Amino acid sequence: MTGIIVSNGNIEDYDFYRKYFKKESLVIAVDGGAFHLRNLGIKPDILLGDFDSILKEDYENYYKAGVEILKFPEEKDATDTEIAIDEGIKRGLRQIILMGVIGSRLDHSLSNVFLLKKILDNGIKGMIVDTYNEIYLIKDRIKIKKEEGYKLSLLPATDKVEGVTTKGLYYGLNDATIEFGSSFGVSNEFISDSAEISIKKGLLLVIKSRD
Questions:
Q1: What's the whole-number average pLDDT of the chain?
Q2: Is the CB of residue 28 less than 8 Å from the CB of residue 1?
Q3: For the chain, which end, N or C, has fewer CB atoms within 10 Å of the first or last residue's CB respectively?
């Protein structure tokens, strides 16, 4: 089952996000992320958090609608988004899509990108999506579908990533090494309907982006 976790970060074009929601998905609203789901017209399966940012009307409406509510204290050792991921892991999700996790707070945004590591470590496919980006973290391989106007960037998340090989990209790589702190892998172009990226060692952020 796929889980969609909606947090309280930036979501602009709600119509853009609808394609990710399937009938069989488990939808988790993280605190103020309930506002985004209301605007999407989607009832969550679970509402969780310390509820410091949720609108009172959203909480009351979902409570009356019988949504499962999990409340946590404000003083805790993990963000509400990480707690939502832990809940998804506990419930046996095989894929987790994070929405509303990129915003004006760089510390929160980076922390949420780093949470892809926890998802990966638990054998789950993870993705962060916003209006302009799809962000993945891989330790082996991935296939990414081309979309008009999008570029693809490869950024090391470890000291170096070895054995980087690509297919379907203008600047092809064959058993290359990319070191952390380098811009070497930024802004490649699709030349096929999809691109394939594989690595032998390390962790690699794969980011499909548009302006």
A1: 97
A2: no
A3: C
